[in-house]
């Protein structure tokens, strides 16, 4: 099983519009961050998590033209507004792309992107949308799901298992629940939101994430959803063994 980091930046990306790199060194390529998304794949199955506004460029860089399914973690713009780029995946596959989300996210996506799921003006639907249950098998990948508190809504935390390997994706949450602790125990890889060093009301900050990583003890932890205060080499110098900042186009073979 392989996990590919399509993007590891926050909603504004790095740099922010205006060429604002913040504390990030602009000469370090790994500081250039698109909006968050990952691919999880085996030899026979490819799952996309979220459709960021940078999706076209992300899939071109990853050399991916076909997927088996997309899972949306929640309805915020930086996670869904590249949804129109599923149209080319639809053309490549010759069939609508299978999409999954929790019920509250489905309601928003259907209202915002009805033409994608229902078709319009003679154009066919390019994706389907089904409820994401607590456990589902997509191809040869088993997916387990937990609801994570994220401000006034919840996001879907995801655990993937295939070929005896385990990885989990925990982005856009602000507290660690017991159900999350259970899902994120015994992992080979944990990709987790670490927005910045200072506290934030709807995202975890670095200190919290390091505490959870020590508690849950995954074999490897990668930080994602980072803003422009999180310089790649500065983080490398301060993080404990087994914890690293992610970077765009990073591929992790488990």
From TrEMBL:
InterPro entries in the cross-refs: Metallo-B-lactamas, RibonucZ/Hydroxyglut_hydro
Superkingdom, natural source: Bacteria
Residue ranges of domain Metallo-beta-lactamase in the record: 34-225
Name this polypeptide is given: MBL fold metallo-hydrolase
